## 1
Amino acid sequence: MPTRNDIRNVAIVAHVDHGKTTLVDAMLKQAGAFAAHQQLDDRMMDSNDLEREKGITILAKNTAVKYHPKDGGVPITINIIDTPGHADFGGEVERGLSMVDAVVLLVDASEGPLPQTRFVLRKALTARLPVILCINKTDRPDARIDEVINETYDLFLDLDADEDQIEFPIVYACARDGVASLTKPENGTVPADSDSLEPFFSTILAHVPAPTFEEDAPLQAHVTNLDADNFLGRIALLRVEQGELRKGQTVAWIKRDGTITNVRISELLMTEALTRKPAEVAGPGDICAVAGISEIMIGETLADPENPIALPLITVDEPAISMTIGTNTSPLVGRGGSGKGADAKASGRVDRKVTARQVKDRLDRELIGNVSLRVLETERPDAWEVQGRGELALAILIETMRREGFELTVGKPQVVTKEVNGKTHEPVERLTVDVPEEHMGAVTQLMGIRKGRMDNMSNHGSGWVRMEFVVPSRGLIGFRTEFLTNTRGTGIAHSIHEGHEPWFGTLTTRNNGSLVADRAGVVTAFAMTNLQERGVLFCDPGTEVYEGMIVGENSRADDMDVNITKEKKLTNMRSSNADVAESIVPPRKLSLEQSLEFCREDECIEVTPETVRIRKVVLDQKDRGRTASRAKKV
């Protein structure tokens, strides 16, 4: 079968923060993708604002480098897919793997294989892709290269890899310094026999199969991702499997439902470094982008009009977490975030999006490019159930929407259950925890409350312990804040979906109740001084609150209705503005993710472009009391 030796398609997969994007940066720089005068940022592939803020890759992105072999041969185009390391964005990984012929598995020389390493490797082995192992960060003082390689071999065996897949080449690298070697360096050192990524490039050329194709085969191209351009409209990113794709060509568009429509390719683009440039033709194995098809979707096929043959649709894992997203129903809807009355309303943004139609349209747009998301109708016309892989994926969606000007009400995250043989099964996670030895008991106790089952424990002799638990997914909702508190911020925890098991029973994940405002008004320092001994407050003085809004965490298990707007009155002994030297404990500011963790079943989150508030679902104090008394009688 003919091959195209001038192209290699490879994906870089790894756990979060093991150095994928940094390695791609170094490859781009050393392949001469940029001029000497260009100002280059770190992690150039993380172009999204949220990716830069959080330091993680959220969207799979592709780039291409022209590699000039040292022997003077023909330049070879290496198409690189930078995939997310977090399992919550697994849909991006599955799409990325459908575009390539091999993967580079990046593993930290100290941390070794972690849950997302298992996740992305399982996907690669299922797709029968060859693997190149790259041990990164060899210069870490706590590097343990030999043990990490042995753990990786164990992981391959655990995932039932065959003999061909286990015989993988190993490259040792320090991506930050742009150095790679085929010779194992000493622990904690940069490879000494190389000063570039040349050994890494040569390993890719030797072990990544060149794309194969059939002579005179009809056109087949698979849509794997979508993008948008202000001038070209929707852009479909695709890989040409057979035949050729040309600018101006008429092709058959095979939709997900099997219907076929003839369309014209108005623009053909090829990726070069971080930009797309116009091209005339794309052949087998090329990764290109086309414009001119306004409603094309991921997984569909472009084919020969005279002989249309569809490629298989891209399949992704089922969602495990859901939450209800609806319009903002609080008394402060549309009034801005500083919460200081009419001033905030007057200075608020005019493009605030608060209607049900706007929210639904935005969720429908998200479905176009996010194959791992589901949006279901609910009993209410202004709220929808959104299902995704994990809490982080849904939090990223909400954060993106609030930055676009949306005001939302978000319910507590719930797990997506399914019936197996008449019994309810819930999703479970494999949680890997790295903690100092002195916190081992606290973590074990924390997981016991959440019905976690310890599967494995290892001590590398460095004062740190690694424990693996199988725990129900709902036990991890609200886990991270408590975990960091119990380990004094030193613990590291990562989890990955492990399947479904029978319902674990009732879980109590939050022991403390809420402090709930019992009236509308503005928070006063006088009221905060009297209330701070009752618990931890969330509001600053001067913040506008409403009845049913949660203003703090109670030190006891039950909820407490409080008057946080109480003012100091004038008496016959002193004036109301006479100062008393009492200090206010700084309030705890909750991020969106922390608010989702804090939320209880009868609570929800109000999200606006400026602020995040937690509130009761039923705002009226008397109505909540009646509901509670009825629940006790039942």
## 2
Amino acid sequence: MRTLVFVYLLVIYGYKLSSQEYTIYGNVRDATTATSIPEVLVTLKNSKFSITTTGDGAFILEGVTLDGKQQLVLSKAGYKTLILPITLEGGKELNLFYIPLEIDLKELNEELDRISLTETELNSDEEQQDNIISGLLGATNDAFSNAAAYDFSSTFFRPRGLDSKYSKVLINGIELNKINTGRPQWGNWGGLNDVMRNREFSLGIQPSEYSFGAPAGVLHFNMHASQYRRGGRVSYAYANRTYTGRVMGSYSSGLSTKGWAFTILGSRRFGAKGAIKGTSYEANSIFLSIEKKLTQNHRINLVAFYTPNRRGRSTALTQEVIDLKGNDYNPNWGLQNGKIRNSRMREIEEPIFILSHEWSLSDKTTLSTNLAYQRGTTKNSRIDYTGSTLITSSEGQESFIGGARNPAPNYYQNLPSYFLRFPNPTAANYQNAYLAQEAFTNDGQLDWSQLYAANTIATNAGLNSIYAVQNDVNKDSFVQASSILNSNFSEHFKLTAGASVSTLKSSNYAQLEDLLGGNTWLDIDNFAEDDASTGGNLAQTDLNNRNRIVREGDRYKYNFDISAFKASGFTQLQATFKHIDFYTALQAGTVNYQRNGLYENGYYPGEASLGKSSEINFTTYGLKGGFTYKFSGKHFALFNAGLQSLELPSNTVFTNSRQNNAVIEDASAEKLLNLDASYVYRSALLKAKLTGYYLDFANGSELSFFYTQSLQSPLIEQGNALVQEVTTNISRRNIGLELGIEYKILPTLTFKTAAALSQNTFTNNPDVYYTTTLANNKITFGDGTVKLKNYHVSGGPEQAIQLGFDYRDPDFWWLGASINRFSNAYIDVSNLRRSGAFSTDYDGLPFNDFDPAIARDLLIQEKIGSYYLLNIVGGKSWLVKGRSIGFFATINNALNTKYKTGGFEDSRIADYRGLQEEKEREQPLFGNRYFLGYGATIYANLYVRF
């Protein structure tokens, strides 16, 4: 045994004598300005030896055991990668005193156009639009992803048919999806383009270093100050889509010799209108990131940004309105004292603070711990036309007078179709229809002066205001802590583990913003159906403050809090070998919600509305895995599989949170099976990727609010009711193919094509029930289901095809264009029309004249016609005395094509007889409502980088 030990030690000693250990010194500087460059990754090619430069650009690579001819690779974002040949022999030190890195203009230009394009989308507030953002910012070198980001997004195309609540957005390890909606609030970081370039996107359920993953992918922004290239940028942008001008300036110090780094940014976006009139835009953004490198192994970073923004909104339109006023009509605005005023404004003010600590436990393991705090408000305004005045009789009997018709100019009673609604219109009907058409086409905007005049008359008569502007306010206080461990614990294996805890207190209330010339407002429900026995109680929004008089700035109508607690953890193992890579991951979490009512509603007295609700809990899980098989350096096959359960957002759990504590029946987490497989080919000339995917959803839930005249129940007079529609046990299936090809015809000219072919359908008949203040119990029809099986799930076109080219000249100018075809977009169907209410009369009995053939025709889902869009992009850059100067412009929909992106059926009329009458009319009273695409839009950016 001693002999073996001696021989072993002798071998080791001999190896040590024969092996040299080298130390490589160097200093990396900007080739143009000669300033030092920190955080440059220095790697000895085909070895484990690597290090990053310090604040003064220096590095020391110690313990190198290789000798002979080697290659030193130096890389940093914004610079050209340098491969430096070196020879290690003789002495034990190699001193590379000065290593110049050149700015990579090509990379900076590509980065600029990628980020600039996202700017036009960052503030969408329609649910069908918000899903496109993660794809946009997650654009990669994959041809299909780039097409979906830049060209398909303008049609509100959803990659794989997924809403944004199925994605995850993180900044410095903090997940920023809203707990109450499940979606990212993109306006919270609008205008921060220059500091959003350090991002990592994990497509679908592929591995992520920051999260377990999500069906639509994970997008992570790294905003640590040391990760930005030293220097600044100032720019001016012109656009005609959401705003007309943007000024922006940013500067990054880089990491100093004392271990400090900072990045600052300020920007302003503005415009009296965008592509649609009345959509004013005003936004300011400030950003600060400060980092201190405490030791070689510890660093802390503080990020703070505040992006208050205020914008006017538009709305979906019926075909009758489109025909009369065109695609760019917006009924929400009118002139007040000669200036445009929009009644539906959206304001977001939610500053975010993130404190991060990074600990390098070893050269292979890092631990990142993050703490975030966010507090602020989101407001959405609208006109309240229910103002009333209390009248008390000599006997003490209460009654209310007041209220008015909806003042919206596109209200159905203002349109020609209203006067031609009869089976045999008279001459007087035609005359009234003509007058309505003339009035609407010649004006058709909100009459603010009429609202002020009505309030003035009421005030002079001793009455309360009739009209007011109301804000629906959401005020959140959010705290999250997270910790993420990444360890390359061996040559082939990497472990990632993370945990996070979040708490939310969300205050929700209506606020009286503007009395429009009046003095007071009576806080009651004008639509309450009262009688003498109730003493006016039904109408009370708060029984503890009966017949309350409110003024501007006061809370009224509803007032409640939502508290939420969320905790989750995941672990992920990745393995890399010569021909195969694989991974597996597990996730578990818990979510808790509770409502606390601050008003005791007259319809729901006592604990039904006042005080705390029962706690609602969800337990979630996730399991996923996949592999990549490398046939060669050019051919790859990928496969991913995952099974997840996803909690319901709080705005779905509480079915009528503005009035009571009711929760969705049999609330359960949505379950999702996710499968995809890809083939990838990459060569110097050709890049291609073909992906097939299968997504199966089960136990989904949705909540809708609307007014209907077809709630066909004996409990409801003539079916007229404001209802909450609760749909549960929803099953869906998304299947499709994605193709992306790039072929380099010339070194400077690339041909590209991409295609998405999918089918997104319901696979069962979900359960549905209705609640209303007019009935004490839930209302169901027939067997309690909605017949949705085989209907398409709406959400942008299911098919998109692109052909295009990209030319990039060596002299740093470029031009690209693409023609894109979109088809198979479907209107969102009305569930009430496909419930038992459709075939039932007001007395609860079936219609005696019901014809199944006619019924099938009435319930056909509308398919939107196909259309083509031409997009053009181009720009030029110059390098002048170390400064990069450039111009960039895009023209979307260059041919000014008019098209619809989606829409929904109106549930106002949802019964067989009512729909028959609608179809027989020349123009339906309550036709489908459509979201419309923009006409030709331009975005141009001029910048100087120094």
## 3
Amino acid sequence: MTAVSLLAEARAKALSDLAEVLPMLDELGQRFAHGGHELALVGGSIRDALLERPVVDLDLATSARPDEVLKLAKGWAESQWETGIAFGTVGLRKDRYHLEITTYRAERYDPTSRKPAVEYGESLLDDLKRRDFTVNAIALTLPEHELVDPFDGIRDLLRRRITTPGRPEDSFSDDPLRMLRAARFAAQLGFTVDPHVVAAMTAMAARLDVVSAERIRDEFTKLLLAPEPRRGLVLLVDTGLADRFLPELPALRRLEADREYRHKDVYEHTLTVLDQAIALEDGEPDLVLRLAALLHDIGKPATRRKEPDGRVSFHHHEVVGKKLAKARLTALKFPKDVVNDVSRLVELHLRFHGYGTGEWTDSAVRRYVRDAGPLLDRLHKLTRSDCTTRNKKKAAALQAAYDSLVQRIEALRRQEEIDAIRPELNGHEIGEILGIPPGPELGRAYRFLLELRLERGPIGKENAAAVLREWAAEHGITPRTTAAPPPPRDDAGASSPDTAASSGETREASSAGDQTS
């Protein structure tokens, strides 16, 4: 197919796939034309339309400066915002569409800077030339509908290839984050990265150090939430980019290559666990689950030991892994709830392996549910995904054992409340029975009843009170025969009795020499 016929066919396809939004975009294009400026739909919008992928956000480029864009869009857009105006970008909303209009520009990084310096360009060609990859360097002018493809991006789309408009070294020097973005597009689109681009990524991996943790986090998150994250992760490890921001992952591959401590498939096992966790997702991609799958074994390099019989062990790697996961995700500026949830899953991912053939007591099952809390469903998926043995008999036995555990959890749920286990007496009731105010002693009593609830299940308030009195007598707390007055409360909202008990626990824990029961 000739270049002319290829362009004509692609133009027809783009116009067809964008038919719903083109009337709206043409209105805006006419406004810019009347104002003496160019406007074009660019980048991912055209790429996704040609790939028949959903076009979510509309990216446009213009010869107009940001202040002129605001004037030209006034009265047309329903709302506009200037969050990215320092980088030449104005945001607009029209109907249900989100548009970003950016002045023709070129970005350059100072070798020691983490932020791009913005220089405005003078033409659409200059703007397309500075873009990251050829598949994103395609434009559709508005309202003329001319398809502009100066760097053969359409042909690269057909070849399913990621390459740069010019030399990859120049592109990555302009913005080192583009190296990470190449891996992300490989994961998102299922494309192959051109060997020259891979070579440049490998040679320039250290340049990623000038990019802020927040930008790396955002790009890495997009990669991890892509349909094929394994493809992008392998590229990051192979090029050395992962060493710059996620060194725990390539450390797993080095563990396999260590002749003295060689252990089978740690790195490959991790990627397989990630694949299997993705297969168990319900609906939307789950960032917490995917991160936990990726990081669940990162404590192994630090805990590997060669046993007398020649085997390699990784005792307590889940505990070390929790600390490493927390530190790494914090360094990458992930939200606190994501950091806590992922590190907790890493800590718990081996807990099931003590279940064996089902010899856990009901108490142990309750504790498993209590410790997982709201992460129980994710823990189920992570634990099932962690079974990657090729021994079909062993794999079937592990899955059957986990099925048994899930069935026992459901059976207990039908009998009692186990997802939010609390003592059968609250803090106020404990205080009344024992005649003690909020404080360390009440906190100890509350903890005792919580353990009793976990161990024996629901026994009723009356029985719980009787056991509490016995415990109190053994610990030198003399019960009173008459109820103590409730703790004072004010209209400003004093702590609830349960909160008082918890605060008692906190104070007790900090008291020197005070032992818990």
